[in-house]
C-alpha cells in the first residue's frame, strides 16, 4: 500500500509560483513519469514529495498519510539523483548500507539486503570499489542499489539518465524498467526527455509552467493529446502545426491550409468539428509519420498533394522531408526509396484519420 | 482513487504548517549556535580591539584624559613620523613590485620545464615562504653582519666594499626590502603558477598558429587571463607588506636612526617599549587607510565573482 | 589576389623551417633551467648558510677564512641547544601552543564553515564576508589595544594574561580561524548539494552529515587548513614578543632572538642552529605534505 497523493500542492519561491496547485494520484506499484521542459515544476514536485522542499500550500500523502511536515528520512522514500550523489569516500557496499546503518539495522540483515540488491543490479563484483573507479553506468546502478536496499515505499528518480551518453542511456532505460518489474515499488520519475517518459511510464504526467497539462498512458498522450503543448511536446520530430481555416462544403468539411491546398476532413470527424467552422485561429496538426510518400492503394482518409521539397534528411530506415506552406516548415517521413530529392517536387500523402484540430487561443485540442 | 481519505496526523491543519516552520527555525538557530564561537572570537579579539585602538589613540599618555586629536597633531609635527610614512610606502610599494615581477618570471620559468620536474623546482623555490620569517631573517642578519658579512667576503676580491649593509640608511632600507622580496616572491610564484595552469593550452596553440611570438603570447594571453589573480595577490601582499613587523624588528629594529621603521615597528617601539600606548595606537591606525582601500577592492571582486557564478 | 600575396612575402626566410620549432623549444628550456638555477641560489642561500654556520665552532666563525665552507664541522651547537633546558622550554611552549591552537581553530572553523556553507540563516552571507575581512586585519593593528585590554582583565577579574605562554592559545586563533573558515567554506561549498540531500534521505542528522559526509569528503581541505593553522601559530612573532617576557614563558622564535642574542656577543653558530631547529617543524610538514600546503595557499584566491 504505497500510493502517493498530491492535493492542490503549491510551491512559491519568494513571489514566483513554481507549482500552481496540482492534483495527482499515483497508485501502488505504478511507474509514473513527470515530464516537461526545464522550469516546468517537475523537479520541484519530486523534491516536495521527497521532503527536500517545503510545500507552500496543499497536502502530500504517502500511503494515505499526510507527510507535509514529516522530515525526508521518516517518509520512507529513496531517491536517485541526476549526479548520483554517491558518497565519494565510501565504497559501493558502504554507500548502499549507509542509510540502514544510520537506522541501526543489524549487520547480518544489512549484508543480506545489500547483496540481494547487488545481485538484482548485477554489481556484486563492484561492492568494494570506490565511486571514482566506476563508469557512469555503474554509478547509476549503485545509486539505484542504494535506493533498493532501503526497501522504501516510493522510489524517486530525478533525471537519473541525463548524465549518461546516448547509447548508455537507452541501455539503462531498459535496466530501470527491468528493476521496476522485479521490485514493483511505486516510482515517481522526473525527466525532460519525452522518449524516456514514453518508454518507461505506466502513466505520463506532462507538466508545463507549474501546471499539469495531461495525465495518461503513453499511447493516449501520443494519439489523443488534450492540449497544444502536449501535442507539440510528445513525439519527435514534433507534430506539424499549420494555421488553417475550417470550411464547410455541403455535408463535408475541409481544412484549408493555403489558397491552393485544402484537405478533406474524414467523415467520422465532421460532427466533432462542425461547430468550429469559420472560427479564426485554428491550427491543423499532423504528425510527420502521417505525412508519407504516396502509395498505389490509398485508404479512405488518405489524400495526396504535390509539394516542393526544401531539405531531405536520410535517417536510414526513413527519410525526413521538409517543405513549407505559407512560410511554415512542415516535416514528413517517407520511405528512403521513395525518391525524395531536395528542390524537387514530390507527391505526398496525408493520413487525415490522424489529424488534430487545435484552437490556438485556448490551446485546447478540439 | 481521487477520494482516498488522507489521514492527517496532526489535529488541525493550522498545526501541520507550523511544524515545518519550527523545523526551519530550529535549523537556523542551530546554524547560528554553530557560528557563535567564531562570532565571539571575531568580536572580542578582533573587532573590539580594532575599535578600541581608535579610542586609545585619543587619550593622553597617562590614559587619564580624552584629548581628541592631540596625539595626531603631535605626530604630524614630528619629522620621524613623516620619515616612517615615507619608508612604509617605499618599503611596501617597491617590495610588492619586485615580488610580483620575480614571481611572474619564476612562475613562467617553472611552467616552461617538463611537468615532472616542475614539482621538484616548485618545492625548492617555495622554501623561503615556509621558514618562519623571524628565523630566516636571522640568517639574513648574519649574512649582513657588520664584521663577518659573508657577502662582503665574496665582494672583497672584486674590489667592492666592505658594504655597511645595515649601518647606513640607504643600504639598510635596501636590505629590509630585499629580505621581504626574498620571503614573499615565492608566494607570488605559487599563485601565478596556479593561474598559469588555468590558462587553457588550446589558447596558446591557437595563438601560435596565428603567428604570435613567445613574448606576444605572454602579453596578449597569459597577462589578461591572469589579471584577476595578479591583482588580488598584489593587493593582498600590499596589505601584509604594509603591516609587516618581523623583518624590520629582527634585522634593524628601525635603525639606523629610525630610518627603517615601519608603522608596525614604530608603534611597537612607542607603545610597548616606551610605554606610550595612545601614541603607539595612533601610529598603528595609519595602517587602516591602505587596509580599507585594499579590502574594498577585494570585496568588490568577490561580490562580482559571486554574481557571475 | 594571388600576386599580392606573393609580392609581400620575399622577406620571409627561404630556408626550410622544419625543426626550428623544436630547436627554439630546446633553447627556451635551457634558458629556463639557467635562470631557475640562479633564482634557486637566491632563494636557498640563506637557509644553506644557516646550516653551514650551525656546524661551525665559535673559533671558526671568527676566523678570517672562507665563511661559506665548514672546515671543521661540529655538532656542538645542536648538542648545546638540545641539552639546554631553556631552549627545550621554548620548543615545548611552541609545540603546546601550536597543537592547542590547531585543535581549537579546526573545531571552531569547520563547524562554522559548515553552517555558513550549508545552513543559510539570517545574516549568514554578511558573516561570511566579515570572516574574510577579519583575515585582512593584521595583528600589528591589534597588539596595542590588546595590551591595554589585558591590563583591564587583570584589574577586573584578577586574571593575569600578561607574560603567560598560554595566553597565546587565546590570541592565535584570531590569526588562524578566519582564513581556515574561509577556505573550509570554499571546500564545503564545492560539495554537490545532492550529497547532503542523499544523506538527509538516508536519515542522517546535521551532525552526522558533517562528521560522516562533509569532513571525510573535504579531508584535503581540512589538511590544508590544519597545516596553515600550524605554520601560522608556529611562526607568530609579534604577540609573544609583546606579551611575554619571562624566559620560561617564551616561544621559540622570540626565545632565540631575545636570549641567544646577548648584547654584541652573538653566538652565531648556536643562533643559526636554533633558527634551523625552529624552522624544522614547518619545513618537515611542508616536505611531506607539499601538495596540501600549496592547495591551502592558493585556496584563498581561487576559491573566493
Can you tell me about this structure?
- With 366 residues, chain A is of the alpha+beta class.
- Helices cover 25% and strands 34% of the residues of chain A.
- Chain A has helices at 42-50, 92-102, 107-121, 136-149, 166-183, 194-200, 218-223, 228-233, 267-273, and strands at residues 4-13, 16-26, 31-35, 57-62, 65-66, 77-80, 154-158, 186-191, 203-208, 211-216, 240-249, 252-256, 262-264, 282-286, 291-293, 302-308, 311-314, 319-325, 328-334, 345-351, 356-359, 364-365.
- In chain A, helix 2 (92-102) packs across helix 3 (107-121) and helix 3 crosses helix 4.
- The longest helix of chain A has 18 residues, at 166-183.
- The model of chain A has no long low-confidence stretch (mean pLDDT 89).
- Chain B has 309 residues and is an all-alpha fold.
- Chain B has two domains: 1-56, no CATH class; 70-308, MetI-like (MetI-like fold, Orthogonal Bundle), CATH 1.10.3720.10.
- Chain B is 74% helix and 0% strand.
- Chain B contains 14 helices and no strands.
- The longest helix of chain B is centred in the first third of the chain and has 44 residues, at 13-56.
- Chain B is globular, with a radius of gyration of 28 Å.
- Chain C is an all-alpha fold and 304 residues long.
- Chain C has a single domain, classed as MetI-like (MetI-like fold).
- Chain C has 16 helices and two strands.
- Chain C has helices at 2-7, 20-54, 58-62, 76-82, 85-118, 124-136, 143-157, 167-171, 173-189, 193-201, 206-217, 219-235, 238-243, 252-260, 268-288, 290-303, and strands at residues 261-262, 265-266.
- In chain C, strand 1 and strand 2 form a beta hairpin.
- The relative contact order of chain C is 0.12.
- Chains in contact: A-B, A-C, B-C.
- Chains B and C meet through helix 1, helix 3, helix 4, helix 5 and helix 6 of B and helix 2, helix 5, helix 6, helix 7 and helix 9 of C.
